[in-house]
Write a structure and sequence with these properties.
This protein is an alpha/beta fold. Helix content is 45%, strand content 18%. Strands 10, 13, 15, 16, 17, 19, 20 and 21 form an eight-stranded mixed sheet that branches. Strands 8-6-5-4-1-9 form a six-stranded parallel sheet, with helices on both faces. The longest helix has 35 residues, at 2-36.
Length: 621
Amino acid sequence: MIKKFFIGLWDTLNFSRRLIVNFLFLFIVIAVVIALGSDEDDIIIEPGSALVLNISGFIVEQKKYVDPFEAAVSDSMGKSDEPPEILLDDIINVIDSAAKDERIKIMVLDLRNMRNAHLNKLKEVSDALNRFKATEKQIIATGDYYSQAQYYLAAHADEVTMHPYGWMGVEGYAMYPMYFKDAIEKLSVTQHIFRVGTYKSAVEPFIRNNMSEPAKSSAQAWLGALWSEYKTDIATLRGFDVQNFDEKMDDFLAKFKTANGDSGQYALDNGWVDSLKTKEEVRQQLIALVGKDIKGKSFKRISLTNYLTTIKPPTSFVNPLTDKVAVVVAKGNIVDGKRKAGQIGGDSTAALLRKARLDEKVKAVVLRIDSGGGSMFASEVIRAEVLALKDAGKPVIASMSSVAASGGYWIASAANEIWAAPSTITGSIGIFGTVMTFDKSLAKLGVYSDGVSTTEMAGFSPMRELNPQLGEMIQMSIERGYERFLTIVAKARGLSIEEVDAIAQGRVWIARKAKELGLIDKLGNKQDAIEAAAKLASLKHYDVITVEQDLSTKDKFIQELLSNAHVQSFLNIEQNNDVFEAGLQSQISSVFYKLQSEFSSLKDYNDPNAVYARCLVCNIY
């Protein structure tokens, strides 16, 4: 009876699930038919309009793969399991196109929904903003509040306005990883750690409840360099001294007291903003600058997404006759096997490099890396494909984005040249191993594992205590792996093993310092790397293509269908515009996103040899 009950319950739940999905699918189909049959005009940009650069979500090198149908349903309901992402290339493309577009008179920076972004990505956007200003077009930044990342872009505006009740969040850089030692002990999980390198702090969250002094000294050095770069840029843009930054609470409180506890007045008094204006005052100011829109209720404008739709074709056309510089993006944790876009699978990323190698029209490759590493085995699979490209006579430039450390540096090391942004986090040359056993956890539940085997080698299981001799073997493998890492870097960089060891041991470096140490060749962005790759391949006329995983026929159909502007407009639900509530939701979602990321990353420890080149301390918040 019990069995029948659960079978019946499962059948009912399964039927309900299929019914709900079918209803949603029917709703989408009806929406598509209605939208496609609509007589609405295409997106029109009125002459003299304002481009509203309303960046939403995290700025990324490559978006995570999301099922097109699920994404459409989530968007239509105003909800999504994944935090929003926007491509760095798309933002730059929009800004550069608008700079040349005579219909665009000014730009409005509306950054309230922009999430945290690393300094190097912000710098690439800021370079595009400077190119826009060079055309003598005005930029106005408006916001109810500014986070540190948001303010970096806002500071490039000709005028920075803030709501009178707004606030500033420029507070410096911090790195506070989560530590699990006590939690692991309370769960009676036995954590076996194998490592080498004084500064290899990637394993510390599993064996400590706080950060070690060597890890702190290393982190303080590169965080300080990053903060110094941020302060210098802002001080130059705003025309004040770097001492204007409040690094001590006493200094901040003194200024805040002078402003009578008014955060808006504090920002105005200290030169962070140029004016305090309500939403309506900003709207009237923009109407005076560009005129009213067709409805007569607001100013003439076009959003980032809509403008991108007008300049970016739904499907890219690749000229079969021209030579190519191919870009392969390696973003996320490096894991063994195959992964969808937004993660680095050893096999899947190697396949993209192989695809570029076998394409006769591809003459050079830029490997764009944004990764703190992961599986050593997967990293070596990718590095082997870089070497194969070079053997095929195709130069490879490694272009480092925000982070290219540990395994990220491993895959970069084989390139002809390594380029990085000044603020890139790199190095962390060191490896570790980790094996969890749950014999004690199971014993608490009265569950045990016992049996026989034909040899002492057989029978390893996470459900049993780790054989000390097996642990000794893993430690030897770690030490051998570290030697391999040192040898690979020494050979690639023209250094001795001793020289590499002195700057390795898991220590993290900012790119400016890494260049001094010989770990990278040049400082520059992705475009610089593309031009360098073309130069090495002796190309004067070429196209740039991005080698990506092919979508299935079904995914392509759904993606193209649902990307239609009319369909998106029909499905769109008005988003929450309440400032306080939106800000609170953003803060809460950031906390949950951090927790989710910390725990979900555990599944990425899938190296077949349990050996990892990964930098956990490269994440800053």
